[in-house]
Amino acid sequence: MMAVPPKPEQKVAGVCVLRDSVDLVPFLCGHYLRMGFAHLAFVDDGSTDGTFELLQRVAQRTPRVSVKQVHVDRFEQSPLMSEAANRLISAGYPIIVPFDADEFWDATAATFQSILAPSAEAVVHGRWVNFVQRKSRLTSSCWGLLAASHRAPRLPDADEKTITSYASSFLCFSIQKIAFKTASPVKIGRGQHTLVTGPQQMCDAELDILHLPLRSRAEILKRGLNYEPRLAAIREGKGMSWQSAFFSETATNGKLDAVWAAHSCDARGRIDIYGRPVAAVKDHRLRRVLLGAGWHFFTRTGLRI
Fold first, then answer.
1. Residue 120 class from Cβ within 10 Å (0-12 exposed, 13-18 middle, 19+ buried)?
2. How many Å apart are CA 6 and CA 48, to the nearest integer?
3. For residues 33 and 296, is the Cβ–Cβ distance under 8 A?
4. For the chain, does the N or the C end have fewer beta carbons within 10 angstroms?
């Protein structure tokens, strides 16, 4: 389904490439629609867990959501994201917010419009605020997401080297992502961290992205065994998608429990980073977003979560 041309006051659209994320779909749709986004364009990358079928049902209930499915043996996120964004730009949406399935920008459409209003073309950054799942959450489920009531501290030693050598946690690593305003075609860089082609003017503002990197122990196996083989097919160097390679190694080297302990917390919010206890910070923002998104999704679509 193609994006519906926007009304003059509707300027903000979201785009997401996702795979096997059926538990997140109601909250993604509910959150971004509740935040006033005029359209959400999803690209389903060959899901087999019902993600595509659920998005189809949502798209049948509201023209503000569209979905396209692709079947490829490689994870071509950048071209898929760029193609979807360019369709939205061509349809008349000047402000595009890319997001992954586990990312919830903590900003309304009006906020994006206000920040980007002074410029004809510009980029605004968001930064991950990484939330921590309970260690007891072994498999992913919709309402199981509400157990994530702490965020991880950002630690200066959390980087590719320390994370992949089992000395630090990906939870304590943070990075910027982008949203942008333009009337011209763009090329979005891998991971939505940069624009390869498109506006380069940066806004001073930086928004929070509420991010749940690992929503259950099973997600480590999914990333390592489901996602990584398709990423490995396009890897151009060791540093490309290093997180995925790390989780692939974890899935096969007997360190699954230790890595999960370093990427989850106990009931008191303590993360066990390979024997080093780190206190997470109580933060209910993600839970509030999920509850609001779930209610909005149900009341607007009539679909149960």
1. exposed
2. 32
3. yes
4. N
- Residue 137: Cβ-neighbour burial (10 angstroms; 0-12, 13-18, 19+): buried
Specify the pLDDT at position 7.
Answer: 60
For residue 212, give the amino acid letter. L
Tell me how far apart the alpha carbons of residues 168 and 84 are, in angstroms, rounded to a whole number.
35
For residues 140 and 215, the answer to whether their CB atoms sit within 8 Å is yes
CA 136, 139, 140, 142 torsion-angle sign: negative
Report the candidate in 190, 17, 208 with the shortest Cα–Cα distance to residue 101.
17
Alpha-carbon distance of 228 to 222, in angstroms, equals: 9
Give the list of residues 6+ apart from residue 159 with CB closer than 8 angstroms, or none.
168, 173
pLDDT digits (tens, 9 = 90+) for 233-286: 777 776 677 888 899 999 889 999 999 999 999 999 999 999 999 999 999 999
Look at residue 145 and tell me whether its pLDDT is greater than 50: yes
**Residues linked to residue 14 through DSSP beta bridges, in sequence order:** 40, 97
CA–CA distance, 222 with 229 (Å, rounded to integer): 11
Comparing C-alpha atoms, which of 280, 265, 156 is closest to residue 215? 265
